[in-house]
Amino acid sequence: MLFARRGWSRTDYWLIRGSALLFGSALLFGALGLRVGAAQAARPPDVAHVDSPESGQQQAYSLPPEKLAKAIALGRIRNVVDIVGSLWGLVVLWLLMAHAAARMDAWTERTVRRRWLQGLLFFAIFIVVFSVASLPLGVFAHHVSLAYGISVQGWGSWLLDQAKSLGLSVVLATPVLLLFNWIVRRWPRRYWLAAWVATLPLLVLVLFVSPLLEPVFNDFEPLSKEHSNLVTELERVVARTGTNIPPERMFLMKASRKTTGLNAYVSGIGATKRIVVWDTTAGRIPNDEVMFVFGHESGHYVLNHIPKMIVLASVALFFVYWACAGFAAWLVARFGLRWGVKELSSRAGFLILLFAVSLAGFLMEPLSNTLSRHFEHEADVYGQEAIHGIVPDARKTAVAGFDALGEAWLEDPNPSPLIEFWEYDHPSVKTRANFAAQYDPWAKGGRGEFFAK
Ligand SMILES: [Zn+2]
Hints:
The protein is mainly alpha-helical. The protein has one domain (11-42, 61-438). It has helices at 11-15, 17-26, 65-99, 101-111, 115-147, 155-186, 191-213, 228-241, 287-302, 305-339, 347-363, 365-387, 394-409, 417-423, 429-438, and strands at 220-222, 250-253, 264-267, 274-278. The chain has a 4-stranded mixed beta sheet. Helix 2 runs antiparallel to helix 5, helix 2 packs parallel to helix 6 (155-186) and helix 9 crosses helix 13 (394-409). Zinc ion (ZN) binds at residues 6-8, 296, 300, 376, 379. Residues 6-8, 296, 300, 376, 379 line the site of zinc ion.
């Protein structure tokens, strides 16, 4: 995925993989990981507090024995779901290309006359089939999160979220796929370049629009409504960071109907830019820790992580599209006859291009995740520096915040480094807590990276 919503935890990503699969692989050549999510729901987390250490020696993230056993078991399942989820989309696309696409195309041509209507019908069917095929994995993932108490969302509500997600995909992604299909027909040789040019404004549009779609899945209210004390505290962080985030841009998401996990995130650009704190977080962990989370989110703003991701993704997509055009041409030459696909510019041929781009997305996951982890680490440093001088002990607060995060999501304290490298879009909670525990640039009269003092 080239785009991650810049949040505080990685686990919400795992839980919404079902709908993300659909958006991630199908929409826009797989370039846009629009994570409008069916999130999860609530148990007041019994927050883990770090015992006050005497000498600045902090104890990083750990779990009591019975939770540790659960976290390790859940971690294994998450890894499998992550990998299977990535590969499953490719398998489904391959099966569709090899066995169904040409027939689907012929059927739409018999059914409606106008060419653009045929295209809409074809791609709408494709999206429906693709998401139905992803449903079993989503069901399994939801079953597991219910079993482990991470989710408290009933099956009816969960299915409704899936249906909404599918409806949105059909409405939003179908015309986009049609547009790209048209581009391939219009410029059969240099279509990848034209597609790249068309992708850039769409990337910006999706980032702009995604906060407007989030209320389809979750209720939001101004953070000041029930947490005015917290907002007052957060404004001290705002003043120190100079971010100029007014209270109107701070929202509370009613996540507790669906999950027990803690989270906060930034989304949107320009007029839709906002910071969202889940109601499982605000009021459930001490305000000092929410201020740290808020500082982390502010870091994404201040350090321009969203524009940087857009630029880097654009550069990467230029080469990805170019390489995928070559690979897709090879696939058609090699399998086209067998699959009944004569050229890439046909609708069935377009699925071959989608497959190529999805495969590239899978292979580039470690790269985009490494980049994402870098940004997340920067935001962690920024967050800790942002609360320095506001809370009594920034290190202690940060470590306690990570402890609460890890315990609420049952994050494995010792993930395999390979899995962390490939699948984690945030550093593991252990890594983050360990860093926070030793980060104290002010100890000998020094200063942090991002603040003068
Ligand atoms: Zn973040």
